[in-house]
Amino acid sequence: MIFKWFNAEQGSAVERFAKRDRLNPLELLPWILAIAAYYVFPSYLPLGSQILLTILFAISLDLALGYAGIITLGHAAFFGVGAYSAGLYALHVTGEPLSGLVVAAIAAGILGLLSGLVILRTTGLTLIMLTLAVLLIVQEFANRARPITGGADGLNGIAMLPIFGVFRFDLFGHTAYWYCLSVLFVMWIFGLLLVRSPFGRSLTGVRENITRMHSIGAPVRRRLVTIYTISAAMAGVAGALLAQTSQFVGLATLGFERSGEIVIMLVLGGIGRIYGAIVGVVIFMIAQDSFARANPAFWSFWVGLLLVLIVLFARGGALGIADNLVALLRGRKK
Predict the structure, then answer these.
(1) pLDDT tens for residues 273-332?
(2) Cys-Cys link to 108, which of 82, 103, 117, 120 (CB 3.0-4.6 A)?
(3) Residue 23 has what pLDDT?
């Protein structure tokens, strides 16, 4: 009887894990809406491209911050390195877009690996300050290396070749939108598989109780450096998308404001949930655009007020509100 009970429990546990990791049809909803937005809002395609690449940037941060618990305020360093790498590659080698993404990912990943080996020896406030220091160092280097980066003037004259030699980047953003959406979808699938893998589960364990993970012999630091490098590479791809679609790279890609805003977007959507990046970015960027049009001088006040309300009354962000509503509806049905 005991063995039968154990086998039944083990079987049900395996079924639960398999069901949890199975792709839910609702997970396709954001992509259906993104495709529909192309036809419904044709005049907003440039903004749509910005939203899509920012979602990729937010997902990259969520891998480090939300799943591994690596608190960082310098994630824009990898975004900017990716943007500059793609821009320089297009200017001096070739304007082929896909190889530019690979170059950007490698460059940002190398920076993530090298900086991660140093700063991930620390925790807490020291870690936060070191991530910010890395950002400031990279930003100052880009500012000083004027012959390479263009300094304060940025990289101009970036010309991109057609994707696969067929799809040209046009003035209205049609190609850029589909390009950003396709890259985001591939990176989203990769991120989803990563966080649902045993490696991703172990990152959650590190975030929740690093002492216990050490006690069971898990290579904690190696895993943190690995996810930090992957996160940096993904941020580099997001930066490359910005460089290729806007055909300009400036120091703003390395600004602290970009790092701060992306953290705010994650908080709005829900940290530690890969869909929080999608929801948070959409809410923030649409709210920012709407508030800026309605009140150009004080739009940041309304965005800040929205953030305060989310933090005070919805600790899990917008997805937390949705979870609470679903739980409430289920409770009433019962």
Answers:
(1) 888 888 889 888 888 878 777 777 777 787 778 778 777 776 777 777 776 776 677 666
(2) 82
(3) 60
Q: What distance in Å separates the CA atoms of residue 238 and residue 232, rounded to the nearest whole number?
A: 10
Instruction: Provide the token pair at 55.
Output: 């979602």
Distance, in Å, from the CA atom of 263 to the CA atom of 272, rounded to the nearest integer, reads 12
Does 17 score more than 50 pLDDT? Answer: no
| CB neighbour burial string for 292-328, b if at least 16 within 10 angstroms, e if fewer | eeeeeeebeebbeebbeebeeebebbbbbbeeeeeee
* Cα 292–Cα 293–Cα 298 angle in degrees, nearest 5: 40
Is 0.90 surpassed by the pTM of this model?
Answer: no
Question: 289 burial class (0-12, 13-18, 19+ CB within 10 angstroms)?
Answer: middle
Q: Of 5-14, 27-36, 134-143, which gets the smallest average pLDDT?
A: 5-14
Residue 172 · residue 45 · CB < 8 Å: yes
Q: How far out from the chain centre does Cα 182 lie? A: 15
Helix (H) or strand (E) holding 61: helix 45-62
CA 118 to chain centre: 22
- Three-state DSSP at 163 gives strand
d(CA 94, CA 100): 8
Which amino acid, 147? P
Q: Which of 175, 188, 184 is nearest to 245 (CA)?
A: 175
pLDDT digits (tens, 9 = 90+) for 254-285: 998 899 889 988 888 888 888 888 888 988 88
Both tokens of 228, joined, read: 């930090």
